[in-house]
């Protein structure tokens, strides 16, 4: 290309959008997920770990505490081809340290397992920001999709992971998203859309997801002993739809939307 | 981030990953957005790019610059996203507040593009758009762009010529 560059080339040195797009939060989220996904793949044979699309999502909650998670989970189970300890074992074959929160049949051929892990970051707090104090913790939320084979249940289609980091002060306040009463993560498999997260506001007793057709779906609320309450809502798949997630109190009043 | 600091690595440490993300995160995101015109998808793609880089740093052999290497990975992943079912990938938090429809994102670009030139770039066909962005924004050579797109240099040159011609017409029309 021997022609000189046009004058308007200079305008393309700006970022495409006015708004900040690659935020510190996104960078932290990517770092968390890159590290955790590597740990996952290192723990199991490659031929098993990549046999399909399962879904994992990391919610990083950075807590200013040095205590490590030790509490045993309360498991809510709707269907158990294997008992909960077996699900726990299967999940931990993918990556250790997860507590199963909820198990649900996804189809005749597979089962969704929702789990969480709380880990303390050691060494350089790469997951936190550089000026964060040591002793941060990260909560990872994860959904695995398992299918039975001739011999055993195995992860069904392993996919990419996504993470996000929410910094929380010592009082449990999300100071970057202090207004958030409900933390929401989303993702999906081929025929279902998954929403899940953490209920921050204790007044929220119901989480409702409304799809683009106006159909309402109630999430399963999963109280947990360490103080957080989790929620999980697998929905019928609809492409290119808007979904609305609402937190409601015991009287049906919408607290957050 | 120099070539040499990466090409001999057999395993990437978290600090190097952090440095890469700090230096190239926005650039990766921008290129993904240039291809997909979808903010949420670009978040996902940026993440997948750095996960792939973290896992497979050995795939960097120092034959290209780090930026070219990252742009190539970004393009491949972006095309995968475009070509596969939308929900085959995990989405980021905030899914409920985003509209993935093409028209909505186009309306968003109309309002939120950094300037008029970018606004017009997003009206170009993808084949023109990606070549122009790589050349004008990332200032890559035709050879580097050809390597990323895996097409002959002549094809890059032809597409760039077409993109510039289309852009000149669009901008002339807008400014007249």
From TrEMBL, chain A:
Keywords: Membrane, Transmembrane, Transmembrane helix
Transmembrane residue ranges: 48-65
Top-rank lineage group of the source organism: Bacteria
Keyword match Transmembrane helix: yes
Record's keyword annotation contains Membrane: yes
Record's protein name: DUF5643 domain-containing protein
Organism field: Paenibacillus terricola
Organism phylogeny: Bacteria, Bacillati, Bacillota, Bacilli, Bacillales
């Amino acid at each position: 290309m021997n022609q000189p560059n046009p004058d308007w080339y200079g305008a393309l040195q700006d970022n495409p959008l006015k708004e900040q797009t690659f935020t510190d939060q996104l960078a932290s989220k990517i770092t968390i997920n890159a590290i955790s996904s590597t740990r996952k793949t290192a723990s199991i044979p490659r031929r098993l770990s990549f046999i399909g699309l399962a879904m994992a999502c990391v919610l990083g909650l950075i807590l200013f505490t040095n205590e490590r998670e030790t509490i045993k989970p309360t498991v809510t189970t709707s269907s158990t081809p294997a008992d909960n300890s077996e699900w726990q074992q299967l999940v931990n074959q993918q990556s250790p340290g997860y507590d199963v929160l909820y198990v649900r049949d996804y189809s005749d051929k597979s089962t969704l397992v929702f789990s969480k892990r709380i880990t303390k970051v050691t060494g350089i707090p790469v997951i936190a920001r550089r000026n964060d104090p040591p002793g941060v913790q990260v909560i990872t939320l994860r959904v695995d999709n398992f299918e039975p084979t001739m011999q055993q249940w195995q992860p069904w289609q392993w996919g990419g992971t996504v993470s996000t980091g929410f910094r929380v002060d010592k009082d449990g306040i999300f100071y970057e998203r202090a207004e958030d009463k409900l933390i929401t993560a989303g993702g999906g498999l081929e025929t279902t859309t998954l929403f899940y997260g953490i209920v921050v506001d204790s007044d929220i007793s119901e989480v409702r997801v409304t799809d683009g057709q106006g159909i309402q779906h109630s999430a399963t609320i999963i109280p947990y002993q360490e103080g957080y309450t989790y929620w999980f809502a697998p929905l019928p798949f609809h492409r290119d739809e808007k979904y609305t997630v609402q937190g409601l109190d015991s009287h049906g009043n919408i607290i957050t939307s | 981030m120099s070539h040499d600091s990466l090409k001999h690595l057999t395993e990437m440490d978290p600090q190097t990953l952090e440095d890469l993300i700090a230096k190239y995160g926005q650039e990766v995101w921008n290129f993904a957005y240039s291809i997909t015109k979808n903010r949420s998808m670009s978040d996902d793609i940026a993440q997948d790019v750095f996960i792939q880089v973290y896992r497979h740093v050995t795939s960097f052999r120092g034959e290209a610059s780090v930026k070219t290497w990252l742009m190539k990975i970004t393009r491949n992943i972006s095309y995968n996203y475009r070509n596969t079912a939308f929900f085959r990938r995990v989405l980021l938090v905030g899914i409920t507040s985003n509209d993935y429809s093409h028209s909505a994102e186009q309306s968003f670009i109309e309002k939120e593009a950094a300037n008029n030139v970018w606004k017009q770039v997003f009206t170009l066909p993808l084949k023109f758009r990606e070549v122009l962005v790589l050349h004008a924004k990332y200032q890559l050579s035709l050879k580097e762009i050809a390597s990323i797109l895996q097409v002959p240099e002549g094809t890059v040159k032809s597409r760039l010529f077409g993109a510039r011609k289309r852009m000149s017409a669009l901008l002339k029309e807008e400014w007249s």
